[in-house]
């Protein structure tokens, strides 16, 4: 199992775009947390996480994203998730995280899952 993390900084707009490719599980979650949480600690920064290429995620991935969300509240930043595949989106939905996280996807446009 492998996870590729690509981070792009747009200093003019205070946006950090993170593209995730692969799987998020107990083995890859620490690497993900080491990358994402520090980005959310920058005051006023918008962190956008593109999840279109995540084929699998378990509860450890959710834990990382909850930590990142808590960090945004403490540091005045924001967090947006883009384009999760249906199976990954279902995990957010089942756990109720779609109610507290900004997740942008075609599924929400079509009326939910």
Automatic annotation (TrEMBL):
Ranges for domain STAS: 5-113
GO terms for MF: anti-sigma factor antagonist activity
Keyword match Membrane: no
InterPro entries noted in UniProt: Anti-sigma_ant, STAS_dom, STAS_dom_sf
Keywords, in A-Z order: Phosphoprotein
UniProt xrefs under Pfam families: STAS (PF01740)
SUPFAM superfamilies linked to this entry: SpoIIaa-like
Tree of life domain: Bacteria
Signal peptide residue numbers: none
Function statement: Positive regulator of sigma-B activity. Non-phosphorylated RsbV binds to RsbW, preventing its association with sigma-B. When phosphorylated, releases RsbW, which is then free to complex with and inactivate sigma-B.
Family per record: Belongs to the anti-sigma-factor antagonist family.
Protein name: Anti-sigma factor antagonist
Species for this entry: Pontibacillus litoralis JSM 072002
């Amino acid at each position: 199992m492998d996870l590729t993390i690509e981070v792009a900084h747009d200093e003019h707009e205070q946006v950090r775009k993170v593209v995730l490719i692969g799987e998020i599980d107990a083995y890859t979650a620490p690497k993900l947390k080491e990358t994402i949480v520090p980005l959310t600690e920058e005051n006023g920064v918008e962190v956008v996480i593109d999840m279109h290429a995540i084929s699998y995620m378990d509860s450890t991935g959710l834990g990382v994203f909850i930590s990142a969300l808590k960090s945004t509240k403490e540091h005045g930043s924001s967090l947006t998730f883009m384009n999760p595949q249906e199976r990954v989106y279902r995990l957010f939905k089942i756990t109720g995280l779609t109610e507290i996280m900004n997740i942008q996807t075609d599924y929400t446009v079509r009326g939910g899952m």
